[in-house]
Design a protein that fits this description.
Low-confidence stretches: none
Radius of gyration: 15 Å
Helix content: 25-40%
Number of helices: 5
CATH superfamily: Gcn5-related N-acetyltransferase (GNAT)
Mean pLDDT: 95
Strand content: 35-45%
Strand order of the largest sheet: 1-2-3-4-5-7-6
Largest sheet: 7 strands, mixed
Shape: globular
CATH class: Alpha Beta
Number of domains: 1
Distance between the termini: 23 Å
């Protein structure tokens, strides 16, 4: 495992998360999703102002850094309708860092915060055709539901996956 540290992100880090999202989304989704959808998601969910607004609204972020460079991020918040669940809303690791334990460290970080807050489960959505589904299964997540979510003219074809914390 590479020498990666996890640190809380603040609104001052929104530009770093924005840059990482643009570096990660194209290699991750370029062959899986329509390019117009990728552009839409980056513009609406990863613009600096949008990220800051998500933080103001209660989503927390953490950055993974290696040799002083940000190489991944995670966004998470307690599920509004269920205080036993911490939702991972975003989890992205730079392609150069994938397979080195960074994603696991980010998930473990959120799991520790959840347990400290008395939360029993982590939950996330993953696009059904995203190879990351296998990674999540290796981290202990199981599929609890298949959903199709209409989203601004697109259909998000996802699995909801959940992991029990111990």
């Amino acid at each position: 495992m590479s020498d990666v540290t996890i640190q809380p992100a603040t609104r001052m880090d929104a530009a770093v998360i924005h840059r990482l999202a643009h570096e990660i989304w194209w290699p991750t989704y370029g062959d899986l999703l329509p390019h117009a959808q990728i552009r839409f998601m980056l513009k609406n969910n990863y613009a600096i102002a949008a990220l800051k607004q998500q933080m103001v609204a209660g989503q927390q972020f953490a950055l993974a850094t290696s040799d002083g460079q940000a190489v991944g991020f995670i966004g998470f918040q307690q599920k509004p309708a269920d205080d036993s669940i911490m939702r991972i809303e975003k989890l992205y690791v730079h392609p150069s860092q994938q397979g080195k334990g960074t994603g696991k460290k980010l998930i473990d970080h959120v799991g520790q915060l959840a347990l400290a807050a008395g939360i029993s489960y982590l939950e996330l959505n993953v696009y059904r055709h995203n190879p990351a589904k296998i990674f999540y299964e290796r981290q202990g997540f199981v599929i609890v539901e298949s959903v199709q979510i209409p989203y601004h003219g697109y259909l998000l074809d996802d699995y909801i996956m959940r992991k029990q914390l111990s």
